[in-house]
Each structure stands twice: as C-alpha cells, then as structure tokens.
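Our preliminary data section would be incomplete without showing what the modeling component actually yields. Below, a chain of 150 amino acids is followed by its predicted structure, encoded as tokens that our downstream tools consume directly.
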Amino acid sequence: MEEKMMKEEFMPEDSSPVPMKARFNFCPDGWFSHGSRCLLFVNIPMSWYNAEEHCNSMGANLASVSNPREYSYLQHITKTGGQSIVWLGGFYLQGRWLWIDREGLYYTNWYAQSTSSSYPCMYLRTTNGWGNTQCTSGYRFICSKNPFGC
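Predicted structure:
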C-alpha cells in the first residue's frame, strides 16, 4: 500500500495558519482515520499473536481503546466488517492488563472477564463491552497506528 503524503509548504510569519478543514488525511489507502490514529479492519481470522505480528508488518499494533467514543467507533468498524468479535491489543501479564501499543489502560469496558491467567487476550464485542479468552482463538482484528509514526 502506498501512503499519500503532502509536503508542508513554508509559511511566512505574517501569513495565517491553514484552517482545520484544509488538513489532509495521512492514513494509507484502505485505513480509517479516527482522532490521531489510522485504523484497519483485517477480515482474516488469526490468533492474537499472529494478528499482532500482521499489524507489526504494517507498522501498527492491535488497537487499544482509551475512551467510550473510541470503543464505539471500533464497534462500528467491526459491525461494518460483518463481525461481532475482533481482537484488541489488550493482554494480561504479571498480574495486570496492558495494551500492546504501550498506551495506559485507564479506561475499562469489561462485559464479562474470565480468569485472566488462563485467558490473557482481550477481544471487542459489538454488543456490549469487551471480554478475554485464549490467545490461540481465531478472530478478525483491528490494527492501529499513528499516521506520523515514521
């Protein structure tokens, strides 16, 4: 996939800034732009580990969630892809839940939490909240990256 990027032109100090509506979408073709992130729904079932590796190959990670609005948007992408469950980037390690992209896990939206040590990988549910299961389950997934991460 080819990324389309526009060069910023030099602006003299006395010129006015570019209005917000004139900003360009720096996400690669096929990716959704949401907030400061680019998101990609991958319609191929994989284990949590393989899904994260697939995202890594595109300079991304499995998606993290920092607020209800983001979660709602990820649910929308999942429904649009014809799914009810997708992998998220949450995992359980050494007694706590973490995001694979190193974001802080301050917002939680558990629907039903299974034993964390036996089911250490997190998935999104389109109906309500997220859950956790074995990492070897095969689900579709959402990759997330910063458009300016290079």
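The domain at 40-145 is CATH 3.10.100.10 (Mannose-Binding Protein A; Chain A). The CA atoms of residues 40 and 103 lie 18 Å apart. Preliminary results of this kind motivate Aim 1 of the renewal.
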